[in-house]
Amino acid sequence: MLSFRLSAALLVMGMAFGASAASVRNEPVQPITPAEITDPAKVELGKKLFFDPRLSKSGFISCNSCHNLSMGGSDNLKTSIGDRWQEGPINSPTVLNSSLNMAQFWDGRAGTLKEQAGGPIANPKEMAFTHELAVEVLRSIPQYVAEFNAVYGKEDFGIDEITDAIAVFEETLVTPDAPFDLWLKGDDNALTEQQLAGYQLFKNSGCVACHNGVNLGGTSFQKMGLIEPYQTTNPAEGRAAVTGKDADRFSFKVPTLRNVELTYPYFHDGAVDTLTEAVDIMGRLQLGRHFTDEENAQIVAFLKSLTGKQPEITLPILPPSHDNTPRPVPFD
Amino acid sequence: MLSFRLSAALLVMGMAFGASAASVRNEPVQPITPAEITDPAKVELGKKLFFDPRLSKSGFISCNSCHNLSMGGSDNLKTSIGDRWQEGPINSPTVLNSSLNMAQFWDGRAGTLKEQAGGPIANPKEMAFTHELAVEVLRSIPQYVAEFNAVYGKEDFGIDEITDAIAVFEETLVTPDAPFDLWLKGDDNALTEQQLAGYQLFKNSGCVACHNGVNLGGTSFQKMGLIEPYQTTNPAEGRAAVTGKDADRFSFKVPTLRNVELTYPYFHDGAVDTLTEAVDIMGRLQLGRHFTDEENAQIVAFLKSLTGKQPEITLPILPPSHDNTPRPVPFD
After folding, report:
1. Nearest CA distance, A215 vs chain B (angstrom)
2. Tell me, what DSSP letter sits at residue B252?
3. Count of other CB atoms within 10 angstroms of residue A20
4. Would you call A60 and B81 a contact, using CB atoms and an 8 Å cutoff?
5. Can you name the residues that pair with B87 across neighbouring β-strands?
6. Alpha helices in A52-154 (DSSP H)
7. How far apart are CA A300 and CA A194, in angstroms?
8. Taking CB atoms and an 8 Å cut-off, how many pairs form between chains A and B?
9. Cβ–Cβ below 8 Å for B77 and A328
């Protein structure tokens, strides 16, 4: 009887451990759950659209140009290069784990990934196309028509289905199993001592007040330059451009810190190239705290433990244009 | 004894069939052999370099920008977009099956893929970098240093190793098993009647005089506009730019017709968008022959049978820049 009770107790403990593996530690950050793909045909269609430069006027710029999945879902440039080499107004945020943000764009002007996806296509400084022309191009390509028909049950698809498919693909772009995730799940050996010290410092000095949740960011808007003003020539107004409130000037969506090792340069103006400098500036401007070299190195080491398993993407083969497909206009 | 002889004869026949499977039909075109990868680490390194925009001054243009493996190894633009949106001088040839050409570039000025690979990196109208800066950038990235060391046994690698790795990757970009290849190997059902009629016409009307061999092209230089002059505003001189001979003016490397369905627009100036128009122009200017609509459609159907199995590429994850990696300069 004792033996039976012990076994049962162990069994219950085992089940409990299994079910709560994700929250073994009581921390203000939660591990990432791998993407669950429920509609593979829609994901595959969205992937093609994500990589298709025919969604731009020039036929040269795709979603992947500025959210490059070889480079942490970013372009690693201060600000992006748009149609006819126009300089973008702001640093391209990573598309990785972007489904975990409360809103999209630095100023949160899009509530959903689907809403976001329509923005760059029609922005004259980015892909410089129109939704109407994008639809016309895709509808002229028989293989796309067949795929939209298979996925959405209609051949007369529009920007609604296009951006929906892109968003559904983007939802798969999560990066689970970073060393820090493994540690959160209970693996005591997943972090080095320096990384663990960095996390404690990150938590105790207040970084985690904004960089929290499953994405270590993306949960609030915060003023850039809270204790000391942030010096920049970038004219972005931040959240105020959406709310019209003066109090929201220079308030930006807190960026995710996941894969931050890969998504340099940093801040909304991309002014800072290294994590060392970014940590130093954040400490002084947002927390009024000057981290020592040792502390800085600890936090940087912790930040590098946030690099997760990158999505494994098989490059899509795009359906060829048809004889009557409107052609790109790279040069006027 | 009879039985033994018969078996032996069958064995010999079997072997003969096996060995000559590739040339079951006596045709001036040969099927493509799949790539054999003997040094996977070198191929993987070359793939990273092929996709790495840090080989350009701007940090925005990679080999794949103009030889996009999602789009038949081309950019589907008349002429390419280079650094600061400069208009390229000539249509980007496909990288697919390029190892099967006798020389590289439209004018054949590079004898090998390795020699070719160094060209765009240092061309001020293309990637606008220098070999020295490219080497400096890559040598600053610890993961690249480790990979070059593993593959080439040296940490002080240079442009020689960089272009070698790119070329070895490019050698894997062949597209076997097009319907026409299956037909060449003996599958009578691989082509439609229209495609087969198109091939007979292609052969009998003289197209195959230039578009022959395993790559249906890439075996000779020929004058563009043989019977009638080719009208173009493109200033390219062709082979004459290499040989200095007036007789070589407007002589270009005959392009491969493999995957031609995917590599529009056509000709060295990319002036023609559709295969129908390309076949019509080639017939009149090179052969002095006006194909009827039916004949034209047959040849186009045949050309579409040359679309092979596209390389399945897993997008590489590029090693992040180091704190001291020189940064891209997209805007001056």
Report:
1. 20
2. E
3. 11
4. yes
5. B81
6. 63-66, 113-122, 131-139, 142-152
7. 9
8. 91
9. yes
Of the candidates A53, A261, A314, the beta carbon closest to that of B312 is on A314
CA distance A57 to B242: 35
Tokens found for residue A43:
């994901």
Residue A126 annotated in active site: yes
**Which helix (H) or strand (E) covers residue B18, if one does?**
helix B2-19
> Which structure tokens are listed for B119?
């060209």
CATH numbers and ranges of domains, chain A: 40-171 (1.10.760.10), 179-304 (1.10.760.10)
Contact check, Cβ <8 Å, A317/B323: no
Collapse the DSSP code of B253 into the 3-class scheme (helix H, G, I; strand E, B; otherwise coil) and give the result: strand
- pLDDT, tens digit (0-9, with 9 covering 90-100), for A158-206: 999 999 999 999 999 999 999 999 999 999 999 999 999 999 999 999 9
Q: What is the pLDDT of residues A264-294, one digit of tens each?
A: 999 999 999 999 999 999 999 999 999 999 9
> How many whole angstroms separate alpha carbon B70 and alpha carbon A69?
14
Closest CB to B87: pick one of A72, A321, A331: A331
Instruction: For residue B83, give the 3-state DSSP assignment.
Output: helix
Per the structure block, which two tokens stand in for B215? 């790559």
Query: Which residues of chain A have a CB within 8 Å of the CB of B312?
Result: 314-315
Q: Residues in chain B whose beta carbon is closer than 8 A to a beta carbon of chain A?
A: 51-53, 58-60, 65, 68-72, 75-77, 81, 84-85, 87, 261-262, 264-265, 273-274, 276, 310, 312-318, 320-321, 323, 327-328, 330-331
Q: Using CB atoms, which residue from A59, A65, A265 is nearest to B76?
A: A59
Contact criterion met (CB below 8 Å) for B325 and B140: yes
A214 Cβ contact list (under 8 Å, min separation 6) = A29, A30, A31, A32, A100
Closest Cα to residue B65, out of A60, A193, A138?
A60
State the smallest CA–CA distance between residue B88 and chain A in angstroms: 11
Length of chain B: 332
Residue A13, pLDDT > 80, answer no
Q: Angle at Cα B261 formed by Cα A161 and Cα A65, nearest 5°? A: 50
Residues in chain A within 8 Å Cβ distance of B58: 77, 81
Structure tokens at A31: 């591990």
